[in-house]
């Protein structure tokens, strides 16, 4: 058995309990050994359900535990950077839920923290470890669809509960931060470059003031990406990657099922009714297990994590530009970000 990274989890956030923790408990290189909540009863309940041996009634106590190597941070968005800093300063590696921060400036503040503490800090875009997404990169690199020129994405769900954290402005709620960040990340990943400018339109909920419908055009050197995301539409998700000679579509790109195979479609464009489509099927897996293992393996082998700080900062730079464009009604430049290393 390989050595496993021992994880501690900050909070009993829903994504952790429903998706990430059970998946990481199945990891080859990861095991969750502790969970903390300001409500000790909640932490005890979560620990019992998830098979976690150690429970803490404060985040500080968990960070002081010498038996924890890494922290998974699924706290509300406005707490991502403060608790990532505290975790790093406690000598723990950090996998932080997306979006890593609320602004580029806030995300950049972590560069100095990482340099000072020597820990690894990554953003939890689990798609980067998923086989269908890795295959997408291969197909594009092989020229299977010719030259990639356009990415078109849609991601929505329906949630109008004002008590839900995704609908609270002060918690960094709204469609762009919660799910638009995936569509931005997907287009940057596919083009393997950064957009230079964006134009966007945002409609805000009149009561909650979060963005409930956001659409954007991202202008890349190699082409364009368009997307719409919404917190108040029928649940739907799809991304298309269109090249000069073909098209790739990932079925259920973000919330990939864990109980059945995932599929990717490659269309040679020969027939509009779909006769030219080849289906590639990927065995049943859990992208959160793969994410935890990929990060843990990077710690064990001292290699780069799947989505390092530099990547997170570049994604935030696009989010910042979209907000700028929506405010001004004009194209907004994507401001320069640190180079990849």
Give an overview in words.
- The chain is of the alpha/beta class.
- The chain is 33% helix and 28% strand.
- It is built from nine helices and 15 strands.
- The chain has helices at residues 14-24, 40-50, 59-63, 80-89, 104-117, 131-141, 175-191, 287-301, 309-328; strands spanning 5-10, 30-36, 54-56, 70-73, 93-97, 121-124, 148-158, 197-204, 211-220, 223-230, 232-243, 247-250, 262-267, 277-282, 332-333.
- Strands 14-13-12-11-7-10-9-8-15 form a nine-stranded mixed β-sheet. Strands 3-2-1-4-5-6 form a six-stranded parallel β-sheet, sandwiched between helices.
- A hairpin with a 3-residue loop joins strand 11 (232-243) and strand 12 (247-250).
- Helix 1 crosses helix 8, helix 4 packs parallel to helix 5 and helix 7 packs across helix 9 (309-328).
- The protein is globular and about 60 Å long.
- The mean pLDDT is 96.
Question: How are the secondary structure elements laid out?
Answer:
Layout: E1 5-10, H1 14-24, E2 30-36, H2 40-50, E3 54-56, H3 59-63, E4 70-73, H4 80-89, E5 93-97, H5 104-117, E6 121-124, H6 131-141, E7 148-158, H7 175-191, E8 197-204, E9 211-220, E10 223-230, E11 232-243, E12 247-250, E13 262-267, E14 277-282, H8 287-301, H9 309-328, E15 332-333
Parallel strand pairs: 1-2, 1-4, 2-3, 4-5, 5-6, 7-10
Antiparallel strand pairs: 7-11, 8-9, 8-15, 9-10, 11-12, 12-13, 13-14
